[in-house]
Amino acid sequence: MVIRLLPETTSNRIAAGEVVERPAAVVKELVENALDAGARHIRVALEEGGIGRVLVEDDGHGMDPEDLALAVDRHATSKLPEEAMLFAIGTLGFRGEALPSIGAVARLTITSRPVGGEAHRITVEGGRKSAVQPAAGAPGTRVEVTDLFFATPARRKFLRSPRSEADASIEALRRLALAWPQVGFEASLDGRAVLNLAPAARDARIRDLLGADFAAAALNVAGGAPGVLEISGLAGGPAFTRATAMEQHLVVNRRPVRDPLLRAALRVAYREVMVPGRHAVAALFLELPPAEVDVNVHPMKTELRFRDAAGVRSAVISALRRTLGHGVGPALGYAGPSSLSFRSPPHHAPRGFAEAPLPLGFAPPPPLAAPSMPVRAEHPLGRALAQVMETYILAEAPDGALILVDQHAAHERLTHERLAEEMRAGGVRSQPLLLPAVVELPQAARLAEAAPELARLGLELEGFGAGAVIVRALPAVLGTPDPAPLLRDLAEELTDSGEGVALAVRLDAAIARLACHGSIRAGRRLSPAEMDALLRAMERTPRAATCSHGRPTFLRLGQVEFAKLFGRS
Ligand SMILES: Nc1ncnc2c1ncn2[C@@H]1O[C@H](COP(=O)(O)OP(=O)(O)OP(=O)(O)O)[C@@H](O)[C@H]1O
Ligand SMILES: [Mg+2]
Contact at 8 Å (CB) between 377 and 509? Predict the structure, then answer.
């Protein structure tokens, strides 16, 4: 017999919290238990998104009948030999909280057969446990949870659709699978296989979970100091970005975490090389002595506290910077654009977009003659002179200053404002597609659920079988972008902002995403007339001086700035 009751003092110290709030939490707890039991292979089966049934089978060391009876009691754990050990935890579980919590809100049946012993079974329903009975079963443990929250219907109301709940469970499983590559994982959803991961080396597991594109493009991270803090893993380069931080996987001592400190370290490390508003993709693994981390700070065990937080932070930042190759600071001798002044043009009263929309669906060859438009005082952004690098517009302001416009950033802001304007006027005008497009993506269910919201954004779609949506119309202002990347970004935006966020905020974020996709790209040749049209539209548009990500859309270099750049002042 190895399970003992925790002394009262210890159990009081353990944060009581909401352990089981949705099926994904059940999956996570049961799989963690299987991993702690030394399983080599774990099988998960979900029905009705896990609300109807979660089954987790492992081939770990199992439990004898006495342990089985104790396992479902509160604060019964085999994982803490000494009270002092609470501060040096090497297993995923340590509270003796998960099984009793699950047994309190669902029907729980555990069948377990220890090495060299017989199988036994115990059942807990709404907190009442049965006697331990002999049973048939393979070596290892099989835990079945049915009718989640049957005893607390109020809680059940807070669950999302079975598909969203299933997504969340699979996501929890992916995160654990990344941290435990040498263990095989299988998962099925209503009998259909959705995940099948053979035991693998770590890089192979990263490739299986984050994709071959990522694995091929990613850079090796190595840092820290042996025995103190070891940092390893793969990080995407600055061009490999996502709309959200969802694909930043952080594993500390084999525990997947969503730790704010580590997230912030990633942000800082990428800050100089990445477009603001985008997020890096990475799988980072930290190993440090268990006593250096306190995992008992969050009811779901997804956050932790480092004893030397500042040290961990700077080690992660410098390891990443070394990987990204920019640890030495800017190569140029001056301090960059921040020493120049950004000045927004005096706004005319915003007149919306009613007149003169940007000519977009066009590509006439650029005329050779200079544009004939005179520089007029009411056009503070002046007259377009040229386009350089197929990305920046050079213009001459009425007072002679040089205006530099980032064509994509500027157009993105215009599109954003126009979408926002249409929203305010009752909904974004949509343009039906000639042929509806089928787009496959993992968050299809979430998008389908958000269809009414998206319709207000001019985007008409509906679910199309499992894992796909069919798109029937797109916002008219966007022209005809490729719907697939647009939907992927939008789905990440909706997933990441979550339910707690106000609809207005979510819609505004979604509009920013749409605007990015509907805007002229860097690398697109513009005619002088198009450039002038862009400048005029910017002058009419509120907030035109920065793009949706907060970057400037144009720079203004007057006499003073030129003098500074040439060292004349
Ligand atoms: N799959 C399993 N195989 C073997 N033993 C198990 C398994 N699942 C649970 N146990 C035993 O039951 C005990 C209680 O499990 P439970 O998940 O409730 O608590 P814990 O894992 O110790 O802590 P935590 O609440 O932090 O998860 C465990 O300590 C372990 O001894
Ligand atoms: Mg546990």
Answer: no
pLDDT at position 296 over 60: yes
CA distance 262 to 177: 20
Q: What are the residues facing 121 on neighbouring strands?
A: 111, 133
Is 557 strand, coil or helix? strand
The atom of ligand 1 lying closest to the CA of 141 is 1
Residues with C-beta less than 6 Å from any ligand 1 atom: 3, 29, 33-34, 37, 58, 60-63, 71, 76-79, 93-99, 141
* The pLDDT value given to residue 335: 28
Question: What's the gap in Å between 75 CA and the centre of ligand 2?
Answer: 10
- pLDDT tens-digit readout, 46-85: 999 999 999 999 999 999 999 999 998 876 666 655 554 4
Task: Quote the CA–CA distance of 125 and 128 in Å, as a whole number.
Answer: 5
Closest ligand to C-alpha of residue 300 is 1
Residues listed for the chain: 569
Residue 348 sits at φ, ψ, to 5 deg, of: -80, 160
Question: Separation of 61 CA from ligand 2 center, angstroms?
Answer: 14
Residue 504: pLDDT band (50, 70, 90) is low
> What is d(CA 226, CA 282) in angstroms, rounded to the nearest whole number?
22
Q: Which residues contact 332 (CB under 8 A, 6 or more apart)?
A: none
